[in-house]
Amino acid sequence: MGILDSLKRFAESTLKKEATKVVNDAVKSVGKGRNHTETFTFAALPTNVAELQALPEASLDTAFKATALTLAALCRYEHNQADSIEMLNFLKGPSDLSTYEKQFIQERLKERMYIPRSFFAGATPQNGYVPTTPYTITVIENPYSFDNENWATLYVKSGGGDNARPVQLRKKPSTGQWFLNDIQCLSEIRVPVEKDPWA
User: Is residue 181 pLDDT above 60, yes or no?
Assistant: First the structure.
């Protein structure tokens, strides 16, 4: 009986270790699949909704593409607010920007039109937030980005801020497309050196 008991305990211990290893490996693989970045490159930023729709990212089949295009559309606000709003309305999908959302964008960008540009590679306070060309933007996912079904919160990093800033998106299940829901990335950043009296 002593030998059988020992064998039984050994078998149970081995099974428990293997089960723990399988669970840990599964958890690790889920984390890897949900914690990455995607980088998008544009030869030129779109200046109107037709140019935006002509880009391959306009398929909006991922939340990453919708986020990248949101920042590209916001860059147009500095030169033509109506064109920028029209592009953002396309990215909003079934519903246009509300009056509140338009006012929010206007208030955030007033005298700070450089904020959208700051999310593109090469844009820093030292160069007045002028991105390098071609225009490159990286969209960041974290382990919680897709916690709620049909919703996503992705992040973009500004050359003038310390933390990545969020953009909220919503999926339309009938088409599989992701649309802009809430622009949360327009908080203040470091002012360009040429505008900084303390620089």
Answer: yes
Do the domain assignments include residue 124? yes
Contact call for residues 138 and 131 (beta carbons, < 8 A):
no
The model carries a pTM of 0.82
Residue 86: inside a domain, yes or no?
A: yes
CA-atom Rg of the chain in angstroms: 23
Find the helix packing angle between 81-92 and 63-75, rounded to 10°: 170
The whole-angstrom separation of Cα 152 and Cα 114 is 26
Structure tokens given for 29:
């693989």
Instruction: Please count the structural domains in the chain.
Output: 1
**Within the chain, where are the H helices?**
2-33, 49-54, 63-75, 81-92, 99-109
Instruction: Tell me if 136 sits within 8 A of 39, measured CB to CB.
Output: yes
Alpha helices in 34-144 (DSSP H): 49-54, 63-75, 81-92, 99-109
Phi and psi at residue 198, to the nearest 5°: -100, 5
Domain that holds residue 71: 37-195
Residue 143 has pLDDT above 90, yes or no: yes
Note whether residue 184 is domain-resident. Answer: yes
